[in-house]
Amino acid sequence: MAPKHTGIWAQTLVEALRKRGISDQTIVGNAGINLRALEGDEPKIGFDDLALLFERAEEVTGDDLIGFNHAQGSDYRRGGLIAYTGISSPTVRTLLHNLARYQRISSDAIEISTNNLDEEGLIEWHFQVQRGVTRRQYVEFGGTGILDIIRRLTNRRVTPLKVEFRHFRKTNLKPIAQFFGCTVEYGSDENRIKLKQTDLDLPLRSADGQLYNLLRKFGEEALKKLSRDKPSIVVDVEERVAANPGKSQEDVAKELGMSTRTLSRRLTEAGTTYFGVVEDYREAMAKSMLTGTDMQFTEVAYVLGYADASTFSTAFRRWVGKTPSQYRDQNSE
């Protein structure tokens, strides 16, 4: 079953596109997204469709900063229980810890970690979905939204020490860097924002101790009722392949605490194979690097675990029917 995510921000995006005179038919195109799923006060949507909707918004508007722009000034109260728990928190630090803890209520697609927040000032996040799901616009929406909310709730221009995104980008870098006010790196191993400890201790103007305690009680009750599916075996394997695309099936099985035969069986039950997972990852990352960076083909080949550019080129032609050079020329931003 595809991971589900809150549809609130997809709902607000569709509303914004409609206000610009863009019809539902144009928004959806041939993507097969069901906009009716976004109706109501608590919409849920498959994360694949959510990410695709943000990418479609870029296509129909011609704005490759659509996620970044949509996040700024959004009505964060639309986020419901999670949003109000954050808003009523005493400090930026508690806001982020609560976001990480209670996000699970509205999504089984996102993993937010504040494990390194108190010592290193890091909030990190990624999505438990296959690498082939393009999520650049939604990731930028989320990262921008986090800082935008912090600034609005503290009435301070909080500036991170560093921002990192897993995806690649080579256009419109300046507006993003100006917004964050710090170094923004692309193609990182994780999505993360590093904040100053002094900024984490800033009080929120909207802090409300009585409301905060009440909402946390509701949140804990919701977590107890939550029966969350574990990440699929495919996602587990992809995360390990991402660290080293040349890693063997035996090594991955060992890391997952199972035999090679068990891993093979579970992947078969999921409708794929170890080779298939590795190939899907390499294809998705190759496309991203070819269109989102100026990396040489030999560099792309190396990152993906190929011995040389020729071997990589042969594999790429098998995937998409074009050479890496042809693909880059036709799809560059």
Mean pLDDT: 88
Report the biggest beta sheet as strand number plus sense, adding barrel if it closes.
Answer: 5 strands, mixed
- Give the amount of beta strand, in percent: 5-15%
Poorly predicted segments: 227-231
Estimate the helix proportion, in percent. Answer: 40-55%
Distance between the termini: 33 Å
Q: Write down the overall geometry.
A: globular
Q: How many discrete domains?
A: 2
Q: State the secondary-structure class.
A: alpha+beta
**Tally of helical segments:** 18
C-alpha Rg (nearest Å): 21 Å
Total number of beta strands: 7
Q: SSE string, helix = H, strand = E?
A: EHHEHHHHEHEHEHEEHHHHHHHHH
Strand order of the largest sheet: 3-4-7-5-6
List descriptors.
8% strand, 7 strands, 55% helix, 333 residues, Arc Repressor Mutant, subunit A, single chain, 5-stranded mixed β-sheet, two-stranded antiparallel sheet, alpha+beta, globular, 2 domains
Any chance you could write out the topology, listing elements then pairs?
Layout: E1 4-6, H1 8-19, H2 24-28, E2 44-46, H3 47-61, H4 66-71, H5 81-87, H6 92-102, E3 110-113, H7 117-120, E4 122-127, H8 136-154, E5 162-165, H9 173-180, E6 183-186, E7 191-194, H10 197-200, H11 209-225, H12 233-243, H13 249-255, H14 260-269, H15 274-292, H16 297-303, H17 309-320, H18 324-331
Parallel strand pairs: 5-6
Antiparallel strand pairs: 1-2, 3-4, 4-7, 5-7
Helix pairs in contact: 5-6, 5-11, 12-15, 16-17
